[in-house]
Amino acid sequence: MATSSEQAKKLQLFLQWLQVNGAELRGCEIKYCNESKGFGIYSSNDVPHGILLVVPLDLAITPMRVIEDPLIGPECRAMMEEGEVDDRFLMMLFLTVERLRRNSSWKPYLDMLPTEFGNPLWFTDADLVELKGTTLHRATEVQKKNLKTLFDEKVKKLVEKLLVIDGNPESEVRFEDFLWANSIFWTRALNIPLPRSYVFLQTEQGGASSNASGASTNHASTEKLAKGENGKLLQINNSTSQVSVAESTSQEGETIWIEGLVPGIDFCNHDLKAAATWEVDSTGSSTGVPFSMYLLSAGNILLEGEKEITISYGNKGNEELLYLYGFVIKDNTDDYLMIHYPTEAIQDMPFSEQKLQLLEAQKGELRCLLPRSLLNNGFFPESTLPEGTNEKHTASQFNFSWSGHRKMPSYSSKLVFPEQFLTALRTITMKENELYQVSSLLEELVGSGGERQPSETEVRTAIWEACGDSGALQLLVDLLNMKMMELEEGSGTEGNDAELLKNVHITEIESAGRNGCVSMSRNRWASIVYRQGQKQLTRRFIREAEHALQLALSEEN
User: Fold this and answer.
1) Using an 8 Å Cβ cutoff, are 159 and 218 in contact?
2) Which end of the chain offers a freer environment for a tag, N or C, measured as fewer CB atoms within 10 Å?
């Protein structure tokens, strides 16, 4: 752990590096927050127009910068031509190499970045046990295994080769270096709306080589950016002085979204009530710095004194926050539950081929995300949710019945489960006579000669007509109960988790408690908060599904 004097020295070198590279701190300062948050950005004084920080886009680490790099650029271009890598891998490779280079020009920035993370990829075995039974536990195991395979088969040899070329043959390349680069990318990368004129080299006056389809906004991969329509490699421009926005007359104002790291701005921490937003200034009209990204004070937030300047990472549940960023929010209103029905289980049931064909015809979803906000529309609404958090949902509402026997359920407006998932469950639970009825209904609709294919809506309507809701809802109840059993195995009930979180003193490392508080590591605390939220959501969705099942059985009988 770095001392305060070491932190101050690193910060001073970084601020000098920012200044040399054209960045301007106009109404803010970068300060060390604490062990869990690292460095953050704080307001220092009022500035005109609310512009707090300006960073030239040339300072951003983007896929274009990687393929321009004199050391690793040629190798990356070759891999792109062979289709071996994607944009994100390029930036992770760049970060890994620069971390190990003795004389990296990025050292003042890299030294400021965290060396350890709170996401599950960095958990000890003891920490990971706390996630057992959750979706995140399996996802972490799979991802770590995939990253280790990628490192062993591609990254290690490539980085060693590049370091030899750079004159650093003695540098040891460890898996932890690549894991660090992966975490740096996922915790700090932003979607940057770059002007087309900045991304593409102007090859003729009044025109640019293009791979765009004519849409005003694109998300371009590096492979597309590195090749023109004729397949020849283009040199991506790194000097803003060589590019004129006025030259791009036919596609002026077009934006291409690129993922990248922006030194300085990436020290903003997260808050749903963000104190600032970030924008790109392509002409310099807002900041006086053409082709720059700037931090702008949010209009409804008053920055007085040394207030931390935060940005919003978006409305994310604890599963995503913990997996990507290494933190959770207690009582997170954006939490969600994921349930799924395994495809392989369908293959072992009667009439599997017909059911799989029907699933494909209706684009049925076997995986389903259930946001917490859906509960406010159900039978047992959550009154504690803030206003405006209601999630629109599609209930099983069909406005006609071929036979006239299937009536609209009285509970349809309260059914919170997505229709695409319910119709998939109806298909899975269909009996033989119901399959024949669906086939007959669709043949009646499209003709025995198959003059046309039925639409997704027609297939779904026919399945609902034949099956109703009870079979699907019974399967849904079973899936949710299985989910709860997995969550409670080894860690107990939601109540057990609540007891563990009482009077907790959070530390970076587990230690003895004091003053009546129980000491708990931050990783363990975050894991318990996440899994408790999953159990709470599962319990509440079980209640919704069971009540809907009772009504469905009553009305169908």
Assistant:
1) no
2) C
What are the pLDDT digits (tens) for 431-481? Answer: 999 999 998 888 887 776 666 888 888 899 899 999 999 999 999 999 999
Q: What predicted TM-score, i.e. pTM, was given to this entire model? A: 0.83
> How many Cα atoms are found within 13 Å in the side-chain-facing hemisphere of 309?
33
Give 64's contacts (C-beta < 8 A, 6+ positions apart). Answer: 199, 222, 225, 236, 238, 258
486: helix, strand or coil: helix
- Contact by Cβ (8 Å): 203, 138: no
Backbone region of residue 419 per phi and psi (left: phi > 0; alpha: psi in -120 to 50; beta: other values): alpha
Contact assessment for residue 236 and residue 64, using Cβ atoms and an 8 Å cutoff: yes
DSSP secondary structure, 371-439, as one string: EGGGGGGSSS--TTSPTT-PPP------S--SSS--PPPTTGGG--S-HHHHHHHHHHT--HHHHHHHH
What are 27-72's pLDDT values in tens digits?
Answer: 899 998 877 778 899 988 766 678 999 999 999 999 988 988 888 8
Tokens linked to 470? 């009870």
